[in-house]
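Extended Data, panel c. Modelled sequence:
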Amino acid sequence: MHSLRLILKNPRYLAPAMAFATLNVLMGTWAIYIPYIKNKLNIDDGDFGTAILFFGLGIFVMLLMAPSLIQKINVGKATAIGLFIFMILFLFPFVATSYVELCISLFFVGTAAALTDISMNSLVSEIEKEDKVHIMSANHGFFSLGGMISAGIGTWFLPMVDIPVYHMAFVICMMILVNGLLFKNYLNYSVEKIQKSSFSFKQLKPVFTLVVIGFFIMGSEGAIENWSALYLENISKAEEKYFGLGFTAFSLTMAFGRFFGDKISQKFGSTNIILIGILIAIIGFINILMVDLIYSIIGFALVGLGFSGIIPELYRIGGKLPGVDSSKGISMIAGAGFLGFLFTPFLMGKISDWSTLKYSFVALLVFSIIPFLLMFTIKKR
């Protein structure tokens, strides 16, 4: 909790943490209204999965462009610009009047989200190096906290909201106000100039197992963000006021785990944390598949707790592999995670079309079992 105290006491650290929170405040608000948007446009699960694929494509396109943009305009300005564009663009999926408009709007939301995500992670990395502090895990905790707060509050007010775009507009205005007061604290940060180097598949071999695990875990995170409300609506048969509770529970436990992540990792080690985390997530998915609303919400909470430390620990291992440049190892894991985020929600929509959404969550259970088995090969090495 030392890093959390640092952030809360110093505007220099609070400003980027609020950027992390804002990104998921909007995603959490989006998550609770997915059933509404799906019904409004009269689209099925497969169509919605394809729409989310466009969001992932936007992320992937910006993943290729972001490093050069950050170098040109500096990481502080890139964070601010990406964040404010992201906030404005996220109104458009709510006002889309056709399926095509929804796909196009989600593509551009994805590009802005990716620019913000890459920029703010690079920004925190620069702050850590300059100030000799460790606040990355806590910043990711703020990201999860943002999703928890927005989905939780939004679910509470959901029955009272007649026009969801008004709710989203209000949230965006509040986030613009808060970030507008803070972004001056990081606006002038820049990153070191990076020499370009050619990619070789030989670089992938030592980090391949970590890349596969990152693909499955981040893909599952993206799937829960986009499909948890629909699962509670269609499979658990929850009332409308409970639609957002799955994502709320997931975000709450993920935030909790990330705020304590650095300390726990020092005590037990990265590989043990990942193994235990995946095991907890497997138990969580089994609970979700029991269908009952209470069991499902508990399941989402367990998955969030299990997943909370996995990606930070993958980065930690990837940055210390013998014979592999730390930046290349971490970037490969991050790239695989983005691909998982792109592919998995789309796959879930297709599985739901072929059978039911419950079997889509069976696929997520399998996506956790595979990394669990792979981790034993890393632990052995």
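The first helix runs from residue 2 to 9. This feature is highlighted in the accompanying rendering.
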